[in-house]
Each structure stands twice: as C-alpha cells, then as structure tokens.
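Quick start: load a record and inspect it. Here is Diguanylate cyclase/phosphodiesterase:
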Amino acid sequence: MTRIDPSQATLRQASTSSEALRLLRATETRPSAPQPAPELRELVVAELAKPPLKRRALELQALYQAEREQPRKKETRMTMWLTVTLYIAFACTDYFLIPDVALVLTSARCALSALALILVEILVTRDASANIIDTACATLIVAGYLVWLVLASDTAFTQSLSYYMVFGTIFMMVANLLFNFSAFLSIVSSLVVMGGFFAAMMRSEPASLSYEIAFGVFYVSCFAFHLCVNWKLSVERYAAFLNALLSRIQQREMAEQSEALLKLSNTDSLTEVANRRSIDETMRRLWREWQLDGKPFAAILTDIDFFKRFNDHYGHQEGDCTLVAVANTLARLAAPHDAVVGRYGGEEFIVLVQIGDHEKLRELAESIRSAVADLRIPHDYRRDGETTVTVSVGAAATVESRTAKLERLISEADRALYNAKARGRNCVQLFDPSAPHIGDEAENIAAILRVAIERDQVSMVYQPIKSLATGKIEAVEALMRLKMPDGTLISPALFIPVAESSGAIHELGRWAIRTACQEALIGQKMPVVSINISAIQLQAPGFSMSVAKILGELGVAANRIAFEITEGLDIEDHDEVLKCINELQQLGIRIWLDDFGTGFAGLSWLRLVKFDMVKIDRSFLHDSVLAEGADMLKDIIALIRNRGHTMIVEGVETEWQMDLMRRYRVDQVQGFYVGRPVPAKRHRKATVKGAVRVNFRYGMPPA
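Running the structure step on this input writes:
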C-alpha cells in the first residue's frame, strides 16, 4: 500500500492537488477512463475502519480536499452573504440596548459588511484557493465582533452591554457551524472571539463575581460545544466522502466487469476480433442503414489456404498463432475504413465495411491478400508449390437490383471466395453474377441432387452420444453424406444451399425422415431418432402433416422422433415457423435446439420454444482451453440449466475435454473421443438406449 512520507506533510500543495484531481477522475464510472490503482480501494476500506481520532491517510486527505475545493468556494461565498445580512440585521438590537452608540455601530457594520463582500468576491473571481477564502472569511468574522466590541464599549449603558457581549457566542457559532472551516481555523477564530469577550469584561466596570463566573463558564462551554460539533461534522463529512469514493470505485469496477462480459460475449477468445454473434448483429445494423439511408456496405470473406494441412503438420499451437497474426493484420487494415473484423469460422474471417465502389472494395481486398502474404509465415506442406501462408479473398457489395436479402449478400461473398479458391487460391475475387464457374458448379450439384436418392448417392452414418451420468452410450447422431458419381464426397456447405435454393431440400428431407426411421427405429434398434430440419422445411405448408403420414406408414410413434432446429433463423419474424413447431409438438415429436450460441437468435428461441434438448456448439468447448473461453462455456451451461433444458456438448475429442465436461456436470457429450461415425448396421442394439440425429449441414463428422 503506497504511503506518503509524513515529513512531506505539506505535500507541496499545487502538485498534491493536481495528483488528487487525477486520481478523482480515475474513479469516475467511465469505461474509457484510466483504472484507479488497486491500492486505492484497499486504502479507502482501511480508512473507513479507523477510529475517528486516528490520523488520516495523506493520500485520501488530499483527495478529500481536492474534491471539496470548488464546492467549498461556492458554499463559503453564499454563507458570507448570509452572515453579512445577519450582521447588519443585528443593528436593530444596538438601537434597543445601546442606543447612544447605535449610529456609529450601524455605520461600522455596513462598512465592514461591504469590505467583506468585496474581498470575498475578488478572491472568488481570481480563483483563490478555498483555504485562502476561508482564512479571509474567518478574519472578517473575528474583526466584525472585535470592532463592534471596541465601539460598543463607549456606551453609557454598561449594564446592557455586559449582557449584550454574550452574543459573541453567535460569532463562534458562525465560525464553527455555518462555515466549513478547518478545525485549526475554527479553534483560532473562536479563541480570539472568546479572548475579546474576556478582555472587554475585564475592562468594563467591576461586575459581580457571579456574573463573571456564570458568563465565563457559559463562553467556555459554548466554545467547547461548538468545537465538538464542528469536529463531529468534519468527521461525518469525511466519512461521507469516503463512502461516496468507495461507491464510485465499486461502480467503476462493475462497469468494467460489465464491459468485459459484453466484450467476452462479442469477441472471439483466441483472436480477440468480433465473433459470429457480434458479426451477425453488425450485419443487421449495416443492412438496416443501407435500406433506410442508402449507405452501401460490403462483406469480405478471407480464408487461410490449406490451413488444415498447416495444423496437421505444425500443430494447433502454431495454427493458433497464425490465426492471431492474420486477425491482427486484418484489424490493422480495417481500422482506417472503420470496418469491423470478425472470425466467421475455423480459419475464415470476415470484414464488414461501408464501401459501395467496386474498385475501392477490390483495393481493400487485395491489400488484405498481399498483407497476409507479406507476413511470410512458413507453410511447406501446401499442395500448390507455395511455401508460405496465404489467403483467398471473396467479396460482395450491396446492389439495389440484386441483393434483396442479407443472406444473399453473404452467400454471394461465399461464392466469390469459392471462386477464388477454384482459381488457384492466394487471389481476390469479387462476386460476379455471370461468373460461369460458380453457376456451373451449382448446376452440377443441383443435377446430382435430383437423382441422388434413386441412385443411392446419399446415405447416413451414425456417431454415438454418451451420457455422463450413466457412462453408457445412450444416443447416436446420424450424418448425411452426398457423393459424386465417382464416389467423391460433396461438402454440405455446397450442397445444402443448392438444395434449399432449388427446392430439393423438401424431397431430401422426407427421405431422411423415412430412412432414419427404417434404419434406426424399426425393430427397436434405437428408441429415438433426431433429424435436423431446415428452416425452409418448417416454412413449407403441410410439413407437419407429411411427417405424420410417414410415421403412420412406418408405424413409428411420434415421441420416438426429435427434430433439431438451428438457431440461425430469427424466429420472431416467422410466425409460420412457430406454428409448425407447435403442430409438431402436438403430434408428440421432440424439438431440439442445435448448435446453440453460433446464431443470432438463440435467446429468442429459448424464450419462445420449449425445447427437449439444447446442443452447445463445439466451438465453445474448443475455445475453453483459454480462461475466457472456459468462462463463456460455463455461462452458457448455466443459462441452459437454469432454463431447465437437458444439454449435449459437441466436439469432445480428448480426455481433457471429457474431464472438463464431467466437472461442468454436462448431461451428454459427443465427439471423436466417444466414437466415430459408422453405418447403422455396426451399432449393436445393446449399446444404444437413446437418440439418433440426422444432420444435413455436415457431410463430415462434426466432432
């Protein structure tokens, strides 16, 4: 705890005041203000615990004086005006008790009052210190009593004067109670007033001993009483200051904690750029501004080339360092444009910038590509002959005639990114609606989807889910695979958007429901099947009836089916989705929320739909290697548990992650550590007591 040397008690007033004001500003509850020293809070707490007579800490005393400086000036000025008014008003008493000198006393009162007001106003105008103004006021109060006492002693009404002098206690009361003088100044001024009284009493005609004793004791008693009251008020004012200071420190700490929590919820724990949730919010804000004010913006997607091979050969630690380096580079380039940088996927970043001109957009995208290449991070395990880390960049901007939906803009940027990869990577592509490569690829996938079911090009494999309470495999997840005619797997990132845009998702979805029931439910192989449902399916008229028809034909009870819904859809804007979910629940079908935490509407979903199960996205578990990520995962688990939902955490790949899930008391887990996806026939009936899930979005295992 920092202490000032008592030998420096004077504190060099000017520098102390400056330092005190700096510390006071540091305790203001503004997130942008510098954080006060941690010792200050401890010093305040210790000071509050001290007995009143114990010596005050010099640091806090300096803070106290600095905070009271301006209020003291204002209060002293106003009090002096009040004191002068009362001083002149007492002239009426002069005319009643000592009328022979009343005129002289009135003139003296007016002259002294004018002098006092002029002097105080000059000092305030010249911004004199509060101590100087207080000293001047105390001197004027004492002078007012002594001048009156000297002039009044010439009266012939000596008996009246002997009693009138007792009113000197009023001056002591003014010095101790009306003004906020320091203890030293109050004592000195009161002693002078009391000394003037005793001197006048000794100079006057001999009074009775009883008079001298009575009024002498009265004066001394008033002196002691006023000093005690002054001391008590001083202690209480100081304690109030300390409590207020402590409250400000606590408020600032709470504000900083709130800011840290907000940052944690909107920041990627590894790279410290915006996370997916924050990016979604920013995109919606920019989209509204574009629609209302016509401010165009662009989305720039950046993907690190061959990053998986980099991780495989150099290790995840080096991979994380590379992600951080790329993120820092993007943030540096985006700053002059007031752009927002976010991590959009494992090795994919996004830049949102308010640029409408395609040439400027191309220049920014190219500067991103070249800046990452200039990092010269070694990567000797690429497939294209390059030896350093590079990025592929795809960008798309809002265009009135083309971009009717926000999702369309991101889709266009994604298509531009894939086009950049197809052109050999380490290049920049802006979305071109007439680009033949993108169009041909989508048409090829659409053609495959049209015949995939009849030609057995689509299939499912199943991955186990383990209950931590029983230690048994109580569920499996089914993953959909789509193959090219030559057996090559097609990424779900490619075929799902095409299936949704072409309408093939409806037939594919019905096939998935029927197949999952046949492979996993009929014959009591697995009690429950979970199927991932597209938002387009939920919006389709008659979807719930088509599901009921399939279950009726196969003789499967509805409560053995669970539909997983991803939170990416803003449910509050789609009444038909809520209606469809309600119809499915009335049939007895279970509803699960998938990949919780990765979309922008998760809390709305939890509020509006009663889910039977909530699955926490694997990214939160993988980020838990850092303290911030672990805190975020615990907060999400606590939120789900407090809502009364059962939960599954995806992506458990190591023993450490499994132990972490046990410590967090998670209900079920899933991942490579539990088991890899295999065909349904390889799952023995004895090992399965729970659920199966069909996942359209991941052609490869999600864990």
